[in-house]
Amino acid sequence: MPIKIPADLPACAALESENIFVMTEDRALRQDIRPLEIALVNLMPTKIATETQLLRLLGNTPIQVNITLLRTAEHQSRHTSAQHLERFYKTLSEIQESSFDGMIITGAPVEHLRFEEVDYWDELLEIMAFAQRHVYSTLYICWAAQAALYHFYGIPKHPLPAKISGIFEHGILHPECRLFRGFDDTFLSPHSRHTEIQADDVSSVPELRLLARSEEAGLALIERRDHSQVFMTGHLEYDRDTLDTEFRRDKAKGLSPQIPRHYYPNDNPNSVPRMYWRAHANLFYSNWLNYYVYQETPYSLSAISEEGRERCL
Fold first, then answer.
1. Quick check: 22 and 16 in contact, CB under 8 A?
2. Residue 46 CB neighbours (<10 A)
3. CB of 5 within 8 A of CB of 22?
4. Which of 17, 192, 219, 244 ranks highest by number of CB atoms within 10 Å?
5. What are the structural domains, with CATH classification, of the chain?
6. CA dist 63 to 60, 233, 294, Å?
7. CA angle at residue 154 from 150 to 155, to 5 degrees?
8. Handedness of CA 31, 227, 141, 271 (dihedral sign)
9. What is the pTM of this model?
10. Rounded distance, CA 167 to CA 187, Å?
């Protein structure tokens, strides 16, 4: 949240030059406040674990957030009970007339398929079209980021020689970006994927800009310049043991997975994994909620739909 100080206080200019969010008294008096409406489209098979991870991060800010959980209607989940889905989740048809300040669309373990082969691809296209019209800023994670870049901008995904799994250091390409307020010069993030988006493909699209990348893991963050779309190729939301669970699951299937890099102490899977990305994960989601949603979204939710219609023209 911002600090409120007089515009002519000498500290104001110094703090703004350091990328600290300062709100002048005049702006504070003009601000209307209401809870944010955030939709979470959960494509992961382990829905309860994923919703817990993301809600933990969204809840760790002073901003009041109302959450709407969404699922695809066409895909039948094998890992989450029908009772849980019916009780807590809605489908697109149930929220067609609503608007949201923000939306998060998770990844999904379907990278081995062409996008059009995913059984809920047509429904996902409808969800992404809905986001364009009815959501102020949408955050796409991992496979969803690849799907959205492919759908909106024709950017392909490229198969990797081996799965990228582990915790990787990332350099920030635009430190002035508000998503990085309070960040160190570099940050760590988990990755877990078999495909990648390449920088040259993104750089060829004028509406997009690269925000962060890793020498080992490749691109990490991309945004549309108007902040209506943010694409994250990694998993800042992961818990300490998420990569460990994936590693042991794949090992049990006889897939001979590589040990996740920079994860276990001394690369020993019998050791407790290190957790050293939590601070930046909390900061990133706080920054997205505050700067890309709370500070920019219209007070009236109906105005979001009006802006969305203009965005689609």
1. yes
2. 16
3. yes
4. 219
5. 1-31 (no CATH), 33-296 (3.40.50.880)
6. 9, 26, 8
7. 65
8. negative
9. 0.89
10. 10
Whether 312 has a pLDDT exceeding 60, the answer reads no
Q: For residue 310, what pLDDT is reported?
A: 60
Indicate the DSSP class of residue 158. Answer: E
User: Whose structure tokens read 């219209």?
Assistant: 298
End-to-end CA distance of the chain: 34
By the 8 A CB rule, do 223 and 137 touch?
no
Q: How far is CA 9 from CA 13, 17, 21, 24, 175, in A?
A: 8, 14, 14, 10, 25
pLDDT digits 0-9 by tens, 164-179: 999 999 999 999 999 9
Half-sphere exposure of 39 (CA within 13 A, CB side): 27
Average model confidence (pLDDT) across the chain: 89
What average pLDDT does this structure show over 145-173?
Answer: 97
Residue 79 — pLDDT band, cuts 50, 70, 90? low
Catalytically annotated residue among 111, 123, 134, 142: 142
Q: Is 237 a catalytic residue?
A: yes
Catalytic residue among 134, 170, 235, 280: 235
74 assigned to active site? no
Among residues 51, 196, 237, 246, which one is catalytic? 237
Query: Measured between alpha carbons, how far is 95 from 107 in angstroms, rounded to an integer?
Result: 21
- Residue whose C-alpha is closest to residue 138's, from 122, 153, 123, 127: 127
- Residue 255, sorted as left (phi over 0), alpha (psi -120 to 50) or beta, turns out to be alpha
Calpha distance 150→146 (Å, rounded) = 6
The counts of H helices and E strands in the chain are 10, 12
Give the CA distances from residue 59 to residues 137, 182, 229, 253, 313, in Å, rounded to whole numbers and listed in that order: 18, 18, 21, 35, 34
DSSP 256: -
Residue with tokens 């998060």: 104
Q: Is 312 a catalytic residue?
A: no
